[in-house]
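Q: How would the structure tokens look for this protein?
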Amino acid sequence: MAKALRASIDGRISAPEEATIGVLDDGLLRGDGVFEAIKLYGPHPFRLTAHLDRLERSAASIHLSVDRSALEAEIDALLESPPAGGDTMLRILATRGGRRILLVEELPEWPASASIALVRLSPSEILAGVKSISYAANMHATRLAAGRGADEAVYVDRDDIVLEAPTSSVFWTGTDGELHTPSLATGILDSITRDVVIAGVPCREGAYPAADLRGAQAAFLASTTREIQPISSVDGEALAEPDGGEQARRAEAALSEAVADERGAANGQ
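A: Here is the predicted structure in token form.
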């Protein structure tokens, strides 16, 4: 995880090393809770409302009560004095023990492109679409991919259908020249960045076999912190356009435009 810069526990702002929760919190003992990660462009949290909406949906799915109004007030207070320097990220956690945890963190450092390995996953239907803090499987998938010489994993299910990466959505350009991505019906997370890409670039959604991704002309990952990251190879085979191709550039432009529009509206422009 990236370095934390500031913290808030139930509204109490402190240095991260001074922020604590009780050891009996089931968020710690059982990984029972939900979270969101939001990129901060300067002091502005991009798509904050959409992220909080998803946090509430995730919490409702596991019968977890979240005080949204308290969270919103605590976010405002934490971001009143944003860290100096470049862009950062805001992590929000709500635990079964009732803790509201906010962390302002440095952004992860992502390489210009990523090699991926396909890792088989049997998703839990009971947690489909829930952004749970139970992330051990996601983190281990990345380690499994690293063991095969790749930078990141992309999940496929037992029927060899492409799903998503542990912390991002996956898109690719097929031999038909069109952009493709797995549909929400496959059980993937309803990603905020994915929504921005689909709103800005014509894209086909569906249930696609792994062979489609392996045979892609170009591909990229999309997430809050990595934004648009080209995929250079799949299972050790280089893609024809390892820079993500034209569709990745269109996705980058769509995301940049969405960020600029939202920041402009927030500033009253």
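Residues 245-266 form the longest helix (22 residues).

DSSP finds seven helices and 14 strands in the chain.

Upvote if useful.
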